[in-house]
Amino acid sequence: MSLTIKLTIAPRIINLNCHERNRTKFPAIRPKPIYHSNALNPILYNNKRPGMFQASVSGTVIKSSLIEPDGGVLVDVIVPESERGSKTLEAESLPTARLAKIDVEWVHVISEGWASPLKGFMRENEYLQSLHFNSLRMENGTVVNMSLPIVLAIDDETKKSIGSSKDVGLVGPEGDLLAILRSIEIYKHNKEERIARTWGTTAPGLPYVEEFIAPAGNWLLGGDLEVLKPIKYNDGLDHYRLSPKQLRKEFDRRQADAVFAFQLRNPVHNGHALLMNDTRRRLLEMGYKNPILLLHPLGGFTKADDVPLDVRMEQHSKVLEDGVLDPETTIVAVFPSPMHYAGPTEVQWHAKARVNAGANFYIVGRDPAGMGHPTEKRDLYDPDHGKKVLSMAPGLEKLNILPFRVAAYDTVAKKMAFFDPSRSKDFLFISGTKMRTYARNGENPPDGFMCPGGWEVLVKYYEQLQAEEAMPAVASA
């Protein structure tokens, strides 16, 4: 059960800033994981019985299902098991469009309701609203946030093979039928407009653009999805990929009276932990009794020089094992979305998707979803614009935004702390690039930057990566 709550006890913007960036030129994509995660079940840490919980905070009654999904109903377009046989037979009789790996990730996102109320790949009117207004207007006049176009590109040959058919079968990269797209619409894919409005630049070197948009077809195929079975990756991490429905049930089971989400694509260092632990402290001070952290690393496409998902999940497990974060009040799960690195435009998507998962608080730090400019030595986006945009974004009014100050390494206290401008010389900023350089070179970061167990995971990954990179050179010598 879920219902809309007006949180009069907490303003939408609460001034409680994590540094997510990377300026390194990305190498070739690693073809397969070389370091496998331990199976840390994200919901093993709490033995309480399931049940609903009500708490009164400053006179306001709050249920553990704290926030309504966009559109009021969580979208689920996965075909019931009893219908899969007949739907598969139907799909085999339809013209088909082949999906790339990135398209499968978007099918996953749509199928579980992360993009609610979207029920499939965008038709043209939805695409234009998303591209130009960062939102969708519902039939009843309400507005929901939708800052990133979720579209399926096809080439001329596929368009011709579809012809006048109203339905299309979607085939995965391995040739298996994954879904049916109903009541389709085909329209022009104006790539330059899409790139310029999503990223605010058409500079060469944007990872998502170069990987997936530039080589894509000149047409977009929209329609309502029917996904034949749940998307699985069989990579040892599927148990982390909890759907919005599963997460909402787990929040209820843990009797949460607030849920605060933290998005990241990097390993968790003690600066991240500072932000998360300080958020919980502040929520407790506000009167909440059991705020639950959703530690929610991005699990879809990332730049090739970012730390791979399997390594990050192993590192996150060590953070919980070492007690940097409390397993009793933390849920670790994978957010299946691909990463655009589109700054203030993309951070709205990250926040909106967590609303659909049941989070009513969202932590935002410095330059969320940003990166270094691909051709110039500067930030691609203003580091403060992400949190400012979130505070004004249409369709996100019901979400409480928690902007944070920058966390850095305090060389006097020898720990990660909030940056104090009055003694700026005492602070060391360790970017994601610098952190990876430490690990790749076998150097240790300053004591107190990251828990030892988590750091060992990174060092081991880079040792194995370097050994793998050296193999062709040895073979050719």
Automatic annotation (TrEMBL):
Name the Enzyme Commission number(s) assigned to this protein.
Answer: 2.7.7.4
Give every ATP-sulfurylase PUA-like domain span.
67-229
| Annotated source species | Populus euphratica (Euphrates poplar)
Q: Which family does it belong to?
A: Belongs to the sulfate adenylyltransferase family.
Q: Where in the cell is it found?
A: Plastid, Chloroplast
Q: Name one GO biological process term.
A: sulfate assimilation
What domain of life does the native source organism fall in? Eukaryota
- Please give the catalytic activity noted in the UniProt record: sulfate + ATP + H(+) = adenosine 5'-phosphosulfate + diphosphate
Q: Specify the protein name.
A: sulfate adenylyltransferase
Matching entries from InterPro entries are given as: ATP-Sase_PUA-like_dom, PUA-like_sf, Rossmann-like_a/b/a_fold, Sulfurylase_cat_dom, Sulphate_adenylyltransferase
In alphabetical order, the GO MF annotations are: adenylylsulfate kinase activity; ATP binding; sulfate adenylyltransferase (ATP) activity
Gene Ontology CC annotations of this record: chloroplast
Q: What positions does the domain Sulphate adenylyltransferase catalytic occupy?
A: 239-461
**Keywords in UniProt for this one?**
ATP-binding, Chloroplast, Nucleotide-binding, Nucleotidyltransferase, Plastid, Transferase, Transit peptide
Taxonomy of origin reads: Eukaryota, Viridiplantae, Streptophyta, Embryophyta, Tracheophyta
User: Which PANTHER family does this chain map to?
Assistant: ATP SULFURYLASE 2, BIFUNCTIONAL 3'-PHOSPHOADENOSINE 5'-PHOSPHOSULFATE SYNTHASE
